[in-house]
Amino acid sequence: MSTTDNTAAVAADGVTGSDELVDVVVIGGGPIGMFTAFYSAMRNLSVQLIDSLPQLGGQVAALYPEKPIHDIAGFVSGTGAELIANLQKQIDSFGDRIDVHVNEEVQGLNRLDDGTFVLTTKTRSVHTRSVIVAIGSGAFAPRPLAIDYDRDGLDGSKVFYFVKRLADFEGKNVVVAGGGDAAIDWALELEKIAAHVTLVHRRDNFRALESSVAQLRESSVEILTPYKFVDVVDEGEGAGLRIDLAQVKGDDQPSLHVDALLVNYGFTSDNHLLRDWGLPVKRGDLQVNEFLETEIPGIYGVGDAVNYPGKVKLISAGFGEVPRAVNHLSEELYPDRKQPLHS
To answer: Is 106 annotated as a binding residue?
Structure first.
């Protein structure tokens, strides 16, 4: 990671500006943004990588550091933290070309008459020839249980919406709520260290990789389907939870006595920043063409922030979008440069 010491002027509002013109600013420091910065540096472009969080890695680093990552070629049985560490090593290898700024939120994006752009944060402005947006799904919050329970008293102590340390559940009796990839992945990981794991889902079918579902059915994880949550009650200090369930389209109403509940219903997201910046947005997603370029020349998007026919919102798919965007951008900025012929 490099830090650029530019000769700068400070405006009356405290925003620092620089006369330096960089080739590309990458907005978003999740896995896709990190790879975008690295690949841009490989194409000999000068890069600034900006992220609003205090560290690189996005949701993967903040919420899923110990979750296994399955769908990235050549990355076998690795965790989210390991993936981010490897991406950081790639960035560090081009420290002379990649200028990283964390804890900064881009508040303004303006196109100048010459086709370049000025991005502003609370403290500075950046002059760039192009922009690649890689902010994922934007601001996110976990989908809560659809019942009333003591969220203030239980969330973070006995009810959890993500796992930062798998070891916190060692030897415990845990219920996992959900039927998607994350729920099944966590159930299988918890099986290795927990005393007992129960997976509760309101449908008989799961929305997850077939191989993961098959592994789940062969595991010791107790599967309760189709059931819905009726109540979650704190059984007191030093005790656990009572979880009341009701069978969907049935009469069974079991109660479970467990130490912890892990809820995996996905996240709600809001990419209002795209609209704030005046970018072409449809149903919350940035609209791009086959080169991942928006209708504004010089502004591109990759990863979960974008949509196009056939789009798949996976990390592996986002990685594949990066070379398309960066190589097209590089040719636009430097027409004499040839496309790379191999990796």
So the answer is: yes
Q: How far apart are CA 253 and CA 84, in angstroms?
A: 43
**What DSSP state is assigned to residue 245?**
E
Does residue 296 register a pLDDT over 70? yes
CB 136 within 8 A of CB 58: yes
Q: Per residue in 153-181, pLDDT tens?
A: 999 999 998 888 899 999 999 999 999 98
Count: domains in the chain? 2
Radius of gyration of the chain (CA): 23
Is residue 339 domain-resident? no
**Domain span at residue 50?**
8-140+268-333
Residue 338 lies in a domain: no
Residue type, 175: V
- pLDDT of 215 over the 50 cut: yes
Same domain, 260 and 165: yes
DSSP 54: S
Q: Which residues pair with 199 in a beta bridge?
A: 176, 223
Asked whether residue 304 is assigned to any structural domain, the reply reads yes
- Alpha carbon distance 65, 276 (integer Å): 31
Residue 59 labelled as part of a binding site: yes
Q: 212 and 251 in one domain?
A: yes
User: pTM for this one?
Assistant: 0.76
What is the C-alpha separation between 319 and 165, in angstroms, rounded?
27
Which of 265, 299, 323 is the last residue before a domain boundary?
A: 265
CA 324 distance to own-chain centroid: 21
pLDDT digits (tens, 9 = 90+) for 64-77: 788 888 889 999 87
SS (H, E, C) 151-217: HHHHECCCEECCCCCHHHHCCCEEEEECCEHHHHHHHHHHHCCCCEEEEECCCCCCECCHHHHHHHH
Mark whether 16 and 133 lie in a shared domain: yes
Choose the final residue of a domain: 234, 265, 296: 265
pLDDT in tens, 3-56: 333 333 333 344 555 568 999 999 999 999 999 999 999 999 999 999 988 889
Claim to verify: residue 133 and residue 184 sit in the same structural domain: no
Q: Is 304 labeled as ligand-binding?
A: yes
